[in-house]
Amino acid sequence: MAIVDVSPGVALAYEGFGDPGDPAVLLVMGFGAQMIAWDEDFCRALADRGRYVIRYDNRDCGLSTRLDRYPVRLDELIAAVSSGDVAAAAEMAPYRLLDMAEDGVGLLTALGIERAHVVGASMGGMIAQTMAAAFPDRVLTLTSMMSSTGESEYGRPTPEAQAVLFSPRPADREGYAAAAERESVWASKRYGDPAALRELAAAGYDRAYYPEGIGRQLGAMILSGSRADALRGLRVPTLVIHGLDDTLIDPSGGRRTAELVPGAELLLIPDMGHDRPRELWPTLIDALIAHTG
User: Average pLDDT of 171-177?
Assistant: First the structure.
């Protein structure tokens, strides 16, 4: 792992797998999740198929830059958005998805990579879509996984999933890891693994426990608005992947993304939720290799 400056005031922690001479695949992680949520074995399996795989921590997460000078209370942000006070919410949020997309492009530049295949999951899919729209000359292909378009009528979570997403976890390590089991509400019904959720949460806690960044990332996600027009104008080869068991971002989000992007391919996967179960890695990796070939 290394840390590089990608713009004034922002440095990103990243890790590469495979041969830097192979086509680059940039993996963009989602809301509040560290790069280790892209499992190391998953990254190595992609690299073994002839890709140079890069995973990284978004700003305000993991070991990347923390914007502590902009404190945001998650409950106050949610209350402002829920009440329709967009102006108040906007004042709380110091950056948008475009800034996070610029981070990813800055990482490619710092690594000397002119163009990459960009794969984003959940909020990472939103960042990847923004990257492809704003910097099409840097994106070879786009893969938007378990994500949506920013239009409020698509990809809506179930009330149960939303409640879990916004429920604070205990601050102690044991309680934090145990609370991760609640994420089973949006996991694969067939392959969901509570023990794996606990293990990942514990590893993230030990590596870089930092709940303060969640409010700023949420603000970026909510306040960036609809990407519908930008997606209609995309000319980047696009693959949309969504699990049919997803209750955090309903599959309508993936369907709508594929509908908007000209020529996009849609892959709906049975028995996949808002997760990437190891049992489905062969399906996911084959799809990614075919799309980035």
Answer: 97
Q: How far apart are CA 21 and CA 29, in angstroms?
A: 23
Strand order, beta sheet including 139-145 = 2-7, 10-17, 52-56, 24-28, 116-121, 139-145, 238-243, 265-269
For the chain, percent helix, then strand, then coil, each to nearest 5?
45, 15, 40
Instruction: Name the one residue in this structure whose structure tokens are 């945001």.
Output: 72
Q: Which domains does the chain have, with CATH numbers?
A: 2-158+212-291 (3.40.50.1820)
For residue 143, give the 3-state DSSP assignment. strand
Please tell me whether the overall predicted TM-score, pTM, comes out greater than 0.85 for this model.
Answer: yes
At 91 the pLDDT is 82
Q: Is 212 helix (H, G, I), strand (E, B) or coil?
A: helix
133, two tokens: 């729209």
Other beta carbons within 10 angstroms of residue 230's beta carbon come to 17
Separation CA 258–CA 70 (nearest Å): 35
**To 5 degrees, how large is the angle CA 64–CA 69–CA 71?**
95
Give the pair of three-digit tokens for residue 101: 């997309």
